[in-house]
Amino acid sequence: MPGPVDIPDSARHKLCAKCRRWFERGDGEEVPVERMRLFEGMFRLAKTLAGLEPKRVFICHGCLRRRRIISAAIWLAFVAAVAFALIHGYLTDGRL
């Protein structure tokens, strides 16, 4: 996997939005901007349904991999916590 570019050329290279290093265009993907505000997901869905293109940023493959691993770990921890709560409730109470 190729790494960051030493001498960037803005016509040929892209700046990663996460690690702020320059890469070749094929060394990453254009993904929608992540927003953490309360209603941002609903606004993005409404724009998509209206046919408006959401704003996209370039993220390198290394940062995308890190992002997917962290997301998977968060979901796994959530599922484990719910399963633990259900099993603990069943074992102590005898019913759900």
Describe this structure in words.
- This protein is about 45% helix and about 15% strand.
- With about 100 residues, the chain is α+β, with helices and mostly antiparallel strands.
- It has one domain.
- The strands form two sheets. The chain has a two-stranded antiparallel sheet with strand order 1-2. A two-stranded antiparallel ribbon has the order 3-4.
The gist of it:
The chain has helices at 40-49, 61-93, and strands at 13-15, 22-24, 28-32, 56-60.
Structural class: alpha+beta
Over the alpha carbons, how many angstroms does the gyration radius reach? 20 Å
Globular, elongated, flat, extended or rod-shaped: what is the shape? elongated
Task: Give me the number of helical elements.
Answer: 2
Helix content: 40-55%
Query: Strand order, biggest sheet?
Result: 1-2
* Portion in beta strands: 15-25%
Biggest sheet architecture: 2 strands, antiparallel
Helix and strand succession? EEEHEH
Q: Can you give the mean pLDDT?
A: 84
> N-to-C terminal Cα separation, in Å?
50 Å
Low-pLDDT runs: none
Total beta-strand segments: 4
Tally of distinct domains: 1
Question: What's the topology here?
Answer:
Blueprint: E1 13-15, E2 22-24, E3 28-32, H1 40-49, E4 56-60, H2 61-93
List its traits.
2 helices, 4 strands, alpha+beta, 96 residues, single chain
